[in-house]
C-alpha cells in the first residue's frame, strides 16, 4: 500500500458481510484492494466476496487449525513490511475465530493495527430481536464436545442468574439440544431465535424456550443461528428445572453437599428431605461426570 511509509507492515482488521454481500463498507473494499495480502479464515469463502467486487489481492488461509504456525509466518511478513488485511468468513474477525490470537501477536511485537468495522451477527440479532439491548452478555458458541463437558456446564451455570440479555451462537444440528439444556438449567425463558441474518431466508422466531424447542423439533433447523435469551429480572431469581444442577451450582460455589441441598430447598420453597431424595436419586444414575 502506497500510504505505508514504515519499515514494518500494518494489520487491518476488516469486517465482511454476514450474508448480504452489499453489507460492506467502501473503506473495507479499498483496503482489500490495496493491501499486499489477505489472511482469510476460509479462502474459498472469501474468494466469492473478492470475485464479486473484482478484487485480485492474494489470499492466504488463517484459521483455528493453523493459527499457531501461520500466525508466526504472518508476523514475519508484517515485520518485513507486508500490509495484511485480516478477515473472517463473516462479520468481525476476533469474534468466535482465532483473529484475536494474531491481533495479540501483533501488539506484542509492535505491529501497527487498525480496525475497519462493520457487520456483527450477535449485535445485529440482538437489535432485530427487540429484546433488552441496554445490557447484554455475549457468550458466542458454548463449549461443546466430550472434552468440553465440564467447561460447558460451568458456562451454563454462570448464566443461571444472569440479569443481562444473553447472546449465543449455535450450529443447526445442536440447536434443539442446546435450547433443551438451557431450559433445564435456566428455566423456560423468553428467547428469540434469529436465523440467516441479512440473507434471503432471514427469520426471527420468538417465544418461550419450550415453544421454540417444539417448533424446531418438528421443523429441523437450517442455516446460521443466534439465540437471544432474556435475563433474570432484578427482583427475581431463576432456578433451573434440573435439581442436580441447582444443588451443584452451590457446591461449585464452595458449599458442602448438605448445605447446598438446604439452600436449594429454601430457594424452591420445599422440604429439604424432598430435595435430598431427588438429588441422590438423580445423581446415583451416574449422569454427572461421565
Shape: elongated
Q: How much is the radius of gyration in Å?
A: 23 Å
Q: Compute the number of helices.
A: 11
- The SSE order reads EHEHEHEHEHEHEHEEHEHHH
Number of strands: 10
DSSP strand content? 15-25%
What is the CA-CA span between the terminal residues? Answer: 55 Å
Account of the 3D structure:
By secondary structure, the chain is α/β, with parallel strands linked by helices. Helix content is 41%, strand content 17%. The protein is built from eleven helices and ten strands. The strands form two sheets. A five-stranded parallel sheet has the order 3-2-4-1-5, sandwiched between helices. Helix 3 crosses helix 4 (99-108).
In short:
This protein has 290 residues and is α/β, with parallel strands linked by helices.
List the helices and strands and how they pair.
Elements: E1 10-14, H1 26-34, E2 37-40, H2 43-52, E3 59-61, H3 67-79, E4 84-87, H4 99-108, E5 112-116, H5 121-129, E6 136-141, H6 149-159, E7 165-170, H7 175-186, E8 190-195, E9 203-208, H8 209-218, E10 225-229, H9 243-252, H10 257-268, H11 272-283
Parallel strand pairs: 1-4, 1-5, 2-3, 2-4, 6-7
Antiparallel strand pairs: 7-10, 8-9, 8-10
